Every structure is written in C-alpha cells, then in structure tokens.
Amino acid sequence: MDASDLRALQAPLKEQYKADANAAFVTLKARGDLSGEGLACKVSTSRALIEAGLHPATGGTGMQACSGDMLLEALVACAGVTLKAVATALDFRLQGGAVRAEGDLDFRGTLGVAKDAPVGFAGIRLFFDLDTDEPQERIDALTKLTERYCVVFQTLAHPPEIKLAVNKGAAA
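Request: output the structure for the sequence above.
Response:
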C-alpha cells in the first residue's frame, strides 16, 4: 500500500466523520470467561481464545498468558500498525524493523507484601528499531506522529476514567 492508496481508503471515512462526529464513535468490547478450573480467565479475542493466568512471579506456571504481557503486546501492536500507517502516509522509506516494549513491575504490590509498592507498571518503554535510510528529521516526524496517533500509547499516557461495576447473577 502506498500513500495514495491509504488516502483513498481513509478519505470516505474522514468525510463521514467530519459530517457526522457520532459516526466516528465506536465502543470496543472485550469479554472473559471465569468458569473452569484454576486461577484463569479465558479471554475471547477476534482471532483466538486466550487463557490468562498468574505471572510466575505471583505463583503462576508461565503456561498461561500474563495480562501484563498482553498490555505490552497491545502497545506493540498498536504502535507498530500506527507507525506503518504514518510511514505510508509520509512516503517514508521503511524497509523493515521491529517494535519492542518493556515494562517494570514490582510484584510486592500485587501480592500485598509492601503497601508502598505500586500495583501496576511503574514504567513502560517503547522502542522502534527501524531499517531506513531516512534523515533524522524525517525519523523524528514519524516518531512524533506515531506517538500522537497511537491509541494504546495515548491511552496509557493519558489514562481515561475507568469504572468498575459488579452485577450479581447469570453472566450476560
């Protein structure tokens, strides 16, 4: 796909969203199944069923997906797709590369061992290893636009209000 193909693909959507802002509002959903044995939650994705469980640092076996890893994987996926879309729109010469994310967790917080230890990531780092001959100014522009338009990056950088509700009874 080149820049003109991308513009042609997105132009009708942009026009629709300019004419009707409500058309751009989409509610994404995720669902997990708590039935079954063990300390696991079966998460339905658009491609497969993933069984998430405890990280080995909290007593897990390592045989199930870790939700912390899944969060970093979502960041890598979103940032990678966003970077490639921005590179395409900019006619940026990208021959390949890799996206990596790292996050620091202090499991004392999760296990309730130390009240002063945070529950959750204390820091997350995102890396792009790009195979390109573009000048640094173009790489900087690509980076800035990728950061600006990556949904998961922006959500983590500027957390939305999150609400928790518990419903008693049969699963809906």
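Residues 31 and 126 are 27 Å apart (CA to CA).
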